[in-house]
Every structure is written in structure tokens, then in C-alpha cells.
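for the recovery benchmark. C-alpha cells below, seq after
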């Protein structure tokens, strides 16, 4: 048991800085007195600071709690508080806390300096800690109380002393700290969160276990398939190896044939070239001989004559050039005139078109006016030959159009008004329907809320153990105690012990022996009187119990009969109720198990759905990935893969064939190009080129180079390489194509079907869950009804058992009384003592006996008074609990009635909803009909107005065109264009005549040139014919020589053999490609299986085992956590209820003993349980009972009542929560109290000290300036001195020890 012994204060507030002031705390009472402002409260502040480290309210600002250095003329002050105390385990400790305040030029700096906690044992001191944070935690632990209890109860500051009547949030915070509810609430919440998380994990783990089982089965299947694939691949490798050997052999033989045939290629190419040259020469000679006239002159003469033709031709060509330039000039002039003529003709056509359009507009205007007048019934304008009539008709039509527009707007406005009214009716009905639905939703919410509140109130009522029988028993006991107390007081007054003592002293010598005998007889008589009194007490208690049982039966008999049957009795009630309660609990448990089973199935299906959806999304992504690969490979839709693959194979085969047939052509075309470059002549036809810059030569060269490139081995190899790459790329995409087909056609549809099936199954389960939830609620309601009478049944059974025990006790006491027979009464013996009191010896014994009897009488009276007060307090507590229980049960019934009313309201709402739907349909139909009719009318008006407006707009456009033609002078423009055309035609005719004459002259020159050119060509063809004849003869000789070597036959034979071997190689290659493709496909399948095995299936068996273990362990953990959290929650709730009951009982006793007013019967703390999200919390308020009416004390009590209530609450809290620490300090407890309440408080504190002074560690510290209060407390009964706090000459606070009798004498 902890206690405080001594404290030293230095440099705090007004306490000096050069010496420490000490105070010693006595047991059971320490008094501190002094005038206001002397420093009394600083002692409480120092105690709170040294034990918790907390500073007084507002004192932490700029070192306000430390002695001001300015008062000492110093720049630095050291403050220190030291406390010697005994821990709860008896250890002696010293805690020291120091602070420092420094003054700087512009500020104050406060800091904590040395702190320590010392342990004193066998004269040695050991330092336990020097850290401030550790001291804040360790000192309250050594004292055996929490920091919150020290701050708010034990050493509560005067400014904070009325915290019990603060606002609800502050009060809740204080009580939660005192009860330390936060950590338990947090623990329960964490346990529930862990259980909820485990429940969620359980569904996932069960699904994972199912998935792991499937993976294990799939693993075994994959192992078998991979073994089969390995065997098939090994067989295919052997086939591929054989085909590869065959292909290589055929290819080698083909290469040998190609290489042998290449040896004849040069000869054959040369022979072919000569043949081509010879054929070309023969063709040229044939062409020349058709028109050739042979001459007999020599080649030299022909060449000389051709050389002289150039000068003559130059003269003709110069003359021709000059004339041609003149002709070009004429041509340009004619073109210019022609362009001008075309432009003018275009203008004339445009002007004529404008005139025709103008005339057409005039006719159209007349026609449109007549049509519009006829269509819109405009009269008096049939003759429109006059422009005035036209203008008048136009004005009238426009006016009619404007009028119709106005009419349309008015009709539209009226239709909108009608539609708005109809829509308002529809909206009103719709809003009424919505309001009814909202009312229905609110009614359902009200039902759920009232049901939850009824459950909560029923739980609270069940937690209250009080009943009418208990109240009746206590009332009977109070009557008995009052009777006994009155009798004891009467007996004490009648005994007149003072006079008896005087008489006994006078006659002490004469009645010594007689008094001794009478004393013995008195003892025996007293014992028998005790037995008689005990028998009477037991019979009275028996009557109380029987009356209590009758009260319980009358109050709750109907409810018990409704549940346990009409033939119940108190003896059989316990077994019957237990059977009914067990049946109800079994029904609820059965319904919950059935529902939870279905819920777990639903959760498993939902998790499976989620897993399958994720798998489906993955498969779809895989399909999209495969589709992208195929599309990137073929540059086309994935469905065209087979077609593209066939095209690629065909292209590859074609490229290989072309690669074998184009080798010889490349060489021959290169020779042709070389001949053309060196000899400036075509090797085929022998025709010569003028130069390398000649266009004919350049075109010929470009064409041959193109053929060389086309037949070159590089281009062929490039084509073959490209075809091979394309075929390889497309073939590699084959696996992706197969995977895509498998995913799209098989796996994705299968998963989608499975999801659809699971959705249907889950919907059925959800419907079943709703039905089972209703069944659980019904059975829980029945169980709540049974549980609601559990306390009543327990009271009936206990009362019946007590009656049985009391009957047995009455029989036993009656038997003992019958054994004694007739004896003297106590009054007879006392009368004999009074008659013999004159004798000395007997008087001395009488003095001793009478003194003891006087003390005994006083003690018995005080004990009976105390018992009576406690019994009244117990009665008050039970009455309040019974009223609270009745109120709660009434609230439960009210909630039931409200729920029934809400259900009836829902039925009415459903009926009204059924009635309002036809009304809404009717209103909608009316609105739709109105809209349809108004739209038809508006459509008709709109069409008429639009038609008239269209006519007006058309006439306006026509008028604009007519007026524009007149304003621009269309007639004048047309006549001017005609005149300009005539002038241009005359100029053109003159130039055309000159041009014709010049053309004749040019033709004459051309004839001269043509004759000269023919002669020249004739001589040139003769020279060329003679040269080609010689060349042909030479080529024929060379061909004959080359043909004799027979190279073509050998080459053809070798090439044919090479083709055959090449074909064999290609066939073997194609067959090998198929085998390799199949091998690659199987290899990819095997890799995918291995990858899948290594990624997902390698540890499938282990994962299944672990998942199964997790599922079972999680189930066990959920069950254990549920049991533990429920037990912890119930324990905390029970602890809270017990403690609150103790606190309220002590408060009631203290208040009734202290408060002298009649307006407040008693006070107590009301604790309201609030359940939110599976967590419990308590809201607190201090209430007062006025004429059996419960009222909140905050805002309704006086200042004195606040002070007294705060003291009572603190004393009660200290009594209940400070079993290891008996210290409590009251600072100015008489503030705002009147004289009567001050006196009552003093007497109550005196009684408390008297009652608790036997407790070794009880220490009450009272700080007051009211010495009269100390006198009323009768402090001299508990202490010989007190402490005063005053100011010395330096205005420093000084603590001094004074004799208590100074105060008592006043």
C-alpha cells in the first residue's frame, strides 16, 4: 500500500529560491491552512508535478510556475520539488524534479534540468531513472494508480476540480482514462478486425485450396503429356535427321551437275551471242534490201559524196529556220487573238445567259406570285403585267406570312401552357409515388433501428439484477432496523447509566458478592434474549422473502406462464426455464449454422467467380497477344493465316526454282552490255549508236542493265532470302495461331460458361440467404423474449431457496427455546441490581458493568445507524435499478409497438402505391395525348407558315436577282461584247492569210531538203549494206567453228540432271520442313508445359498441402478469437458495471449524509452504452434524483451543489480505484457552500476518516482557509498538529507546523 511521507518545495511560485520549504504528510489526516494567496494550492500543484510531471493549467507559458527571477534581481532561477514516498510494495523512494528559468534580453527560456528517482534500501540510495519520460511512467506505477487518477482525483487542481460537471466530451475523456477503457476497447476491436480478416482470408484460402488441388491434378496430367511429347519428339528427330541427310546428298549431286554445266556456259553464251549477232545482221540486211537501190560506185566515192551534203543542207535549214520563226510569231498572234476572242465569246455567252436568266426570273416571279396567291388564297392579283400589281401582291403575301408566324407563336405558347399543366399533374403524382417509396424505406430503416435499440435495451435490462422481491425484502429490513434502533435508543435513555454509576459507587462495598451472582445470571439471560431476538429476526426475514416471492409472481407471472407453461411453480421453474432457454438457443444456433453454411458457399462461389474472371481476362489477354503476333507476322487478319502461310510456301518454292534457272542469262546480258559500251553497237542487231550520250544508247543501256539486275545472282539471292525470311516469320507465328484458336474457340467460351453457371448458382444462394436471415431473426426474437425473463426466473428461484432455508432455521431456533423452561427476565435482574446498588462491593462491579454497557449501547446504536444508512443506500440503489429496468422494459415494449406501427404503415404505403400507379399511367396518357394533338396542330401551322415563308424568301431572292441585273446594266454589257468580237475576228483573218502564204514557202524548202536527205540515205544504206554483209560472213564462220564443240548438248544433259537432283533435295527439304515444323510445335508445347510446370505446377502438391493446413488452422483461429473477444468484452462490461455500481453507491451514501437541501435526493453517474461497428463505448453524465425524477445535473445546479457533487464524486472514485494508494487531497472544499452544507461536509469527512483510519495508508489532505470548518471536522480526534502557509517579510511562502488545539479553541 503506497503513501506519501514528506515533500520539499524550492523556487516554485512564491516559495523562496534560497531554501526549501518542507511539509510532512500524516496519517490519517494532514491539514494545511492559510489565508488566500499564501501559497496553499502550490502544495497540490507540486504534488501533481512531482508525481506526473504535469504543470498547473496555464502555468507552462513562459515559466509562469517558477519563481520570477526579476523579484530576486537574478537572470536565472532554479526550481525543485522533492517527494519521499512509499511504494505499493513498501519500498521507500525519493523522486526529484528540477526546472530552470532564464531571462534573456527579449525572452524567457524554461527548461527541465536534473530529474531522478532514488530507491532507499538499508540506508543506501540507488538511482532507478533520470529520464523525464520514464519518471512520468514509473512514479504512478510505484504509487499503484494511473496518471489520470492522480491528475483528476487524488491531486486535482482547484481550477479543474469541477470537471465531473464539464461538457460530455470532456467527461467521457476523463472517465475513459480513469477506467482505462481505451486499451480494452482497442483490443476488442483489433480482435474483431483480426477475426473479420481471417473470415475473408478463409474464403480465399478455401478457393486457393481448391485451385491448388486442381493444379496438383493438372501437374500429374502435364507430367504424363510431357513424357508422351518427349517420345514423339525423339521419333521426329530421327525422321528429320534422315531427311536432312537425303537433302544434303541430293543437293550435293545437284551442285556437282550445276558446276559441270557451268564449264560449257562460256562457250554456249559466246555461241548464242554470235548467233544473235548473225540473226541481227541478216534481219538488218533484209530490211535494207527492201528499199535499197544498189550503186556501182566504190565505198570511197560514196563516203566523199556524203561529206559534201552537209554544207548544202545547212543553207536550206537556215532558210527554213527563219521562216519557221516568222510562222511562230504569226501563230502566237493568232493564239493571242483567239484567247481574246474566246474570252469575249465567253463574256457574250455569260451576258446572254444573264439576260435569259433575267427574263426567266421575271416569268418565275409572276408564276410564283400566282401560285402563292392561289395556294394561300390571296385574291385580286391575277393580272401581273404591271409592276405595281406585283409589288402589291408581294406586300400582301409578306403581311400574311408575318400574321401566320404570330399565330404559330401564340399556338405554341398555348400548347406549352397546357403541356406544363399536364406535366405538373404527372410530376405531382410521381413525386407522391417517390415520397411514398421514401417513406417505405424510412419505415424499414426505423424498424431495423428500433429492433436494434430494443435488443440493446433488453440486454441492459437483463444486466440489472434488481427485482420487486429484493426491494420488498430491503424495505422490511429497514422497518426492522428502525424498530430495533428506536428500541435501542429508548433502552439507552431508560438505563440512565450516569445515575446508576453514582449509586454503584456509593453502595460498592455492600453489594459486591450479590452483584457478582447477578452478573452471572445476567449473562445467561442475555444469551437467551439473543436467541429470542434471532428467532424473531429470522421469522421477519421469512415473511419478507414470502412477500417478495408473491410480488414477483404477481408482477411477472403472465410472462413466465407464456414461456414456461401455466402449471409452473417456483420449485419447477428453474428446470423448465433452462429447457425453454436451451431449446431457443439450439433453434438460433441451428438457423445460424444453416445460414452461415450457405453464406460460406456463396463466398466460395464469389471467390471462384473472381478467380475465373481473372483467369478469363488473362486468357483474353493471351489471345490478344497471340493475335498481335500473328497480325504482325502476316500483316493481315488472323483468319487469313493459313492462306498467307500457303502463299509464303509457294513463293519460297518459286524463288528456289528461279535461283537455279537464271544463272546463265546474267552472264549473257553482261556481255551484251559490255559490247554496247565498247563498240557503240547492239550485239543482237549490230545497229551502231552515235555516241554514249545518244538518247537511244542511254535507253538501250538502261534496259540491259535492268535485265542484268533482274537476272543477277544477288537479286535472286535477295528474293530467295526475303521469301525464306517471310516463310520463317510466318511459320514461327504458327504456334501463336494455334494458341489463339485454342483460346478463342475452347478455353474462353468454357470459362465464360462457367462464370454464367456460377452467377446463377450464387443468385440462388443469395435468395436462400435472405430467407435464412429472416428465419434467424425470428428465432433470435424468440430467444430474446426468453432471455428477457432470465433475471426474473433467477430471482424467483433464489427467493424460493431462501424461504426453504429460513423455514429450517425457524424450526431449529424454536426447538432450542423450548429446552430452557421458565427463567428470570432481564428486567427482573436489573431491578435486583438497582435495589442492591447501595452496597460498596457490589456497586464497584456495577460501575464496571454499567460503563461497559454504556459503551456497548453507544457502539450498537452507531452500528445500527450505519447499517440503516447502508441499507437505505442499498434500497435507493435497488429502487433506481428497478425503475431503470422497468423503464428499459417499457421502452422495449414501446419499440415493439413502434415496429408494428411501422409495418402497418408500410402496408398502407404499399396499398397507396398500388392505387397511385394507375393514376400516374392515366396522367401520362393524358399528357401524351395532349402532346400529340398540340404537336399535330403546331405541325400544321408550322407547315403553312414555313410554306408561306419559303414562298416569300424565294420571291425576295428572285426580286434581288432582277434588280441586280437592272442595276449592273446587263443590256449594255451584251452589246459591247458583240462589237469587240467582230473586231477581233477581222484581225485574225488578216494574220491567217499571211500565215498561209508563209507555210507554202516553208513547204517548198522542206521538199528541197527531203530530196537531199533521200539521196544521202540511199548512199548511206549502200555503205551499211556492204559492211553488214561482210560482218555476217565472219559471224557464220565463227558459229560453225563453235557448234563443232557440241557444248549445248552436254550442258543441257547436266542441267537436266541438276534439276532432277535439285527437285529431290527440295522435296526432302519440304518434307523435312514439315517434320521440323511439327517438331518445333511439339517443342513449343513441351516448353509451355515445362514453363507452366515450373511456374505454376512445380510445387502444386506442396501448395495444396499448405493451403489445406491454412484452411483448417484459420477455421480454428476464427473460433478461438471469437470466444476470446466475447469473453474479453463481457469481462470489461461486467467490470465497468461493477465499478459504476460501487461508485454510485458511495456517492449516494456521501450525498445523503452531506447535503442538507431537500431539492436533490441523491446524485449518481449515468453510463450509457453505445455500440458502433462492433465496438462498445460509454457516454457519461452526472444526474440528480429529484422526487424520483432523473435530471442532468449539468446546467441545473448551483455553484455550491457543483462543488459538493465534485467532492463526492472524487471521494467515491478514490475509494473504488485507489485500493493501493489511500491518498486524496481536497483543495478549498468549502468553496461556494453554505453553513449547513459546510457542517454536513465536515461531519461526513469525520465519519470517512473514522471509518478508514484503520487502513494503514489512508491519507486525507485538506487545504482550507476556513478554520471553523476544521473545528466542525473535530480534527483533534485524528491529529495533534496542522500546517500553515503564510508570507514572510520578503513575501515568500513559508510552511510552519502548528498545534491543532490553537484551531480548536478558536
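predicted aa per position
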Amino acid at each position: 500500500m503506497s503513501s506519501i511521507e514528506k515533500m520539499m518545495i524550492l523556487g516554485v511560485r512564491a516559495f523562496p529560491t534560497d531554501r526549501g520549504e518542507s511539509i510532512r504528510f500524516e496519517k490519517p489526516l494532514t491539514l494545511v491552512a492559510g489565508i488566500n494567496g499564501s501559497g496553499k494550492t502550490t502544495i497540490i500543484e507540486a504534488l501533481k508535478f512531482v508525481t506526473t510531471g504535469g504543470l498547473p493549467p496555464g502555468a507552462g507559458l513562459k515559466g509562469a510556475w517558477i519563481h520570477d527571477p526579476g523579484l530576486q534581481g537574478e537572470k536565472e532561477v532554479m526550481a525543485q520539488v522533492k517527494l519521499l514516498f512509499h511504494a505499493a510494495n513498501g519500498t521507500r523512494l525519493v523522486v526529484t524534479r528540477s526546472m530552470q528559468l532564464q531571462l534573456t534580453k527579449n525572452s524567457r527560456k524554461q527548461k527541465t534540468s536534473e530529474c531522478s528517482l532514488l530507491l532507499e534500501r538499508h540506508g543506501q540510495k540507488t538511482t532507478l531513472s533520470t529520464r523525464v519520460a520514464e519518471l512520468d511512467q514509473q512514479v504512478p506505477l510505484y504509487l499503484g494508480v494511473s496518471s489520470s487518477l492522480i491528475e483528476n482525483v487524488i491531486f486535482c487542481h482547484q481550477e479543474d476540480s469541477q470537471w465531473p460537471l464539464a461538457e460530455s466530451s470532456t467527461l467521457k475523456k476523463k472517465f475513459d482514462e480513469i477506467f482505462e477503457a481505451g486499451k480494452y476497447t482497442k483490443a476488442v476491436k483489433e480482435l474483431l478486425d483480426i477475426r473479420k480478416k481471417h473470415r475473408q482470408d478463409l474464403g480465399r484460402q478455401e478457393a486457393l485450396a481448391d485451385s491448388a488441388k486442381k493444379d496438383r491434378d493438372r501437374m500429374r496430367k502435364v507430367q504424363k503429356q510431357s513424357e508422351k511429347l518427349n517420345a514423339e519428339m525423339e521419333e521426329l528427330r530421327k525422321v528429320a535427321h534422315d531427311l536432312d541427310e537425303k537433302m544434303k546428298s541430293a543437293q550435293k549431286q545437284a551442285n556437282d551437275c550445276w558446276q559441270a554445266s557451268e564449264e560449257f556456259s562460256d562457250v554456249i553464251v559466246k555461241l548464242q551471242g554470235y548467233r544473235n549477232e548473225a540473226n541481227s545482221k541478216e534481219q538488218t540486211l533484209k530490211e535494207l534490201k527492201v528499199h535499197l537501190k544498189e550503186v556501182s560506185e566504190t565505198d570511197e566515192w560514196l563516203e566523199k559524196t556524203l561529206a559534201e551534203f552537209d554544207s548544202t543542207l545547212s543553207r536550206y535549214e537556215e532558210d527554213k529556220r527563219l521562216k519557221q520563226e516568222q510562222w511562230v510569231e504569226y501563230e502566237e498572234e493568232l493564239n493571242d487573238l483567239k484567247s481574246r476572242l474566246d474570252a469575249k465569246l465567253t463574256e457574250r455567252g455569260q451576258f446572254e445567259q444573264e439576260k435569259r436568266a433575267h427574263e426567266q426570273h421575271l416569268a418565275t416571279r409572276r408564276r410564283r406570285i400566282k401560285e402563292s396567291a392561289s395556294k394561300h388564297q390571296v385574291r385580286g392579283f391575277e393580272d401581273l403585267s404591271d409592276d405595281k400589281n406585283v409589288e402589291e401582291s408581294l406586300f400582301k403575301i409578306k403581311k400574311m406570312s408575318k400574321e401566320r408566324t404570330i399565330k404559330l407563336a401564340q399556338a405554341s405558347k398555348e400548347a406549352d401552357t397546357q403541356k406544363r399543366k399536364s406535366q405538373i399533374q404527372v410530376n405531382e403524382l410521381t413525386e407522391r409515388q417517390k415520397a411514398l417509396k421514401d417513406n417505405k424505406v424510412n419505415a424499414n430503416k426505423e424498424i431495423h433501428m428500433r429492433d436494434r435499440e430494443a435488443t440493446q435495451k433488453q440486454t441492459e435490462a437483463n444486466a440489472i439484477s434488481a427485482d420487486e422481491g429484493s426491494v420488498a425484502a430491503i424495505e422490511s429490513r429497514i422497518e426492522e432496523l428502525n424498530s430495533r434502533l428506536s428500541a435501542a435508543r429508548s433502552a439507552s435513555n431508560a438505563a440512565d447509566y450516569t445515575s446508576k454509576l453514582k449509586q454503584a459507587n456509593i453502595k460498592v462495598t455492600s453489594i459486591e458478592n450479590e452483584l457478582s451472582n447477578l452478573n452471572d445470571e445476567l449473562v445467561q439471560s442475555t444469551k437467551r434474549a439473543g436467541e429470542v431476538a434471532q428467532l424473531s429476526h429470522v421469522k421477519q426475514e421469512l415473511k419478507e422473502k414470502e412477500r417478495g416471492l408473491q410480488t414477483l409472481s404477481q408482477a411477472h407471472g403472465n410472462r413466465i406462464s407464456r414461456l414456461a407453461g401455466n402449471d409452473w411453480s417456483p420449485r419447477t421453474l428453474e428446470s423448465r426455464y433452462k429447457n425453454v432457454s436451451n431449446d431457443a438457443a439450439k433453434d438460433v444456433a441451428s438457423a445460424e449454422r444453416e445460414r452461415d453454411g450457405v453464406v460460406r458457399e456463396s463466398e466460395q462461389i464469389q471467390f471462384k467467380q473472381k478467380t475465373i474472371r481473372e483467369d478469363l481476362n488473362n486468357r483474353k489477354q493471351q489471345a490478344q497477344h497471340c493475335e498481335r503476333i500473328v497480325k504482325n507476322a502476316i500483316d493481315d487478319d488472323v483468319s487469313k493465316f493459313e492462306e498467307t502461310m500457303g502463299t509464303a510456301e509457294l513463293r519460297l518454292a518459286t524463288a528456289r526454282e528461279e535461283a537455279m534457272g537464271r544463272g546463265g542469262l546474267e552472264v549473257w546480258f553482261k556481255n551484251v552490255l559490255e559490247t554496247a559500251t565498247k563498240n557503240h553497237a547492239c550485239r543482237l542487231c549490230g545497229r551502231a549508236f552515235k555516241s554514249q550520250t545518244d538518247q537511244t544508247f542511254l535507253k538501250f543501256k538502261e534496259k540491259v542493265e535492268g535485265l542484268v539486275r533482274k537476272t543477277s545472282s544477288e537479286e535472286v539471292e535477295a528474293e530467295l532470302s526475303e521469301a525464306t525470311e517471310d516463310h520463317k516469320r510466318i511459320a514461327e507465328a504458327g504456334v501463336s495461331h494455334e494458341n489463339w484458336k485454342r483460346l478463342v474457340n475452347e478455353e474462353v467460351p468454357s470459362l465464360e460458361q462457367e462464370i454464367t453457371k456460377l452467377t446463377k448458382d450464387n443468385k440462388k444462394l443469395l435468395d436462400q440467404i435472405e430467407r435464412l436471415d429472416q428465419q434467424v431473426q425470428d428465432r433470435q426474437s424468440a430467444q430474446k423474449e426468453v432471455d428477457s425473463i432470465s433475471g426474473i426466473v433467477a430471482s424467483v428461484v433464489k427467493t424460493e431457496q431462501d424461504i426453504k432455508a429460513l423455514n429450517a432455521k425457524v424450526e431449529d431456533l424454536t426447538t432450542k427455546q423450548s429446552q430452557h423452561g421458565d427463567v428470570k427476565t432481564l428486567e427482573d435482574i436489573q431491578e435486583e441490581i438497582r435495589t442492591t446498588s447501595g452496597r460498596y462491593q457490589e456497586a464497584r462491579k456495577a460501575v464496571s458493568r454499567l460503563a461497559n454497557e454504556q459503551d456497548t449501547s453507544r457502539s450498537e446504536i452507531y452500528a445500527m445507524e450505519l447499517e440503516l444508512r447502508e441499507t437505505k443506500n442499498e434500497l435507493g440503489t435497488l429502487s433506481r435499478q428497478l425503475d431503470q429496468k422497468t423503464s428499459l422494459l417499457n421502452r422495449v415494449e414501446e419499440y415493439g409497438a413502434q415496429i408494428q406501427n411501422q409495418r402497418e404503415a408500410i402496408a398502407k404505403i404499399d396499398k397507396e402505391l398500388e392505387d397511385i400507379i394507375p393514376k400516374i399511367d392515366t396522367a401520362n396518357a393524358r399528357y401524351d395525348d395532349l402532346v400529340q394533338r398540340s404537336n399535330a396542330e403546331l405541325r400544321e401551322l408550322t407547315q403553312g407558315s414555313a410554306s408561306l415563308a419559303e414562298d416569300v424568301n424565294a420571291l425576295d431572292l428572285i426580286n434581288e436577282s432582277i434588280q441586280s441585273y437592272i442595276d449592273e446594266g446587263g443590256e449594255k454589257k451584251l452589246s459591247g461584247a458583240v462589237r469587240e468580237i467582230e473586231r477581233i475576228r477581222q484581225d485574225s483573218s488578216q494574220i491567217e492569210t499571211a500565215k498561209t502564204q508563209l507555210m507554202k514557202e516553208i513547204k517548198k524548202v522542206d521538199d528541197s531538203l527531203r530530196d537531199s536527205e533521200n539521196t544521202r540515205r540511199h548512199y548511206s544504206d549502200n555503205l551499211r549494206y556492204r559492211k553488214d554483209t561482210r560482218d555476217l560472213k565472219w559471224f557464220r564462220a565463227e558459229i560453225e567453228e563453235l557448234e563443232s564443240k557440241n557444248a549445248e548438248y552436254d550442258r543441257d544433259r547436266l542441267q537436266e540432271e541438276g534439276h532432277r537432283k535439285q527437285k529431290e533435295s527440295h522435296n526432302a527439304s519440304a518434307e523435312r520442313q514439315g517434320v521440323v515444323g511439327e517438331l518445333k510445335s511439339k517443342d513449343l508445347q513441351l516448353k509451355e508445359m515445362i514453363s507452366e510446370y515450373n511456374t505454376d505446377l512445380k510445387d502444386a502438391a506442396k501448395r495444396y498441402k499448405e493451403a489445406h493446413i491454412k484452411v483448417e488452422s484459420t477455421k480454428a483461429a476464427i473460433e478461438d478469437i471469437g470466444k476470446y473477444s466475447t469473453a474479453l468484452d463481457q469481462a470489461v462490461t461486467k467490470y465497468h458495471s461493477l465499478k459504476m455500481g460501487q461508485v454510485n453507491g458511495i456517492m449516494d451514501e456521501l450525498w445523503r449524509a452531506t447535503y442538507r437541501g431537500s431539492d436533490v435526493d441523491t446524485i449518481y453517474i449515468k453510463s450509457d452504452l453505445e455500440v458502433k461497428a462492433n465496438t462498445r463505448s460509454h457516454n457519461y453524465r452526472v444526474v440528480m434524483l429529484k422526487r424520483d425524477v432523473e435530471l442532468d445535473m449539468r446546467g441545473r445546479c448551483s455553484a455550491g451543489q457543483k462543488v459538493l457533487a465534485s467532492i463526492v464524486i472524487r471521494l467515491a472514485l478514490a475509494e473504488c480505484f485507489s485500493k493501493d494508494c489511500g491518498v486524496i487531497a481536497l483543495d478549498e472544499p468549502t468553496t461556494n457552500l453554505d453553513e449547513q452544507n459546510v457542517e454536513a461536509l465536515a461531519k461526513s469527512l469525520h465519519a470517512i476518516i473514522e471509518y478508514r483510519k484503520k487502513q494503514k495508508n489512508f491519507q486525507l489532505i485538506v487545504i482550507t482557509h476556513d478554520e471553523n470548518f476544521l473545528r466542525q471536522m473535530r480534527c483533534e480526534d485524528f491529529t495533534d498538529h496542522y500546517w500553515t502557509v503564510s508570507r514572510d517579510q520578503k513575501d515568500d511562502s513559508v510552511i510552519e507546523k502548528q498545534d491543532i488545539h490553537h484551531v480548536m479553541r478558536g
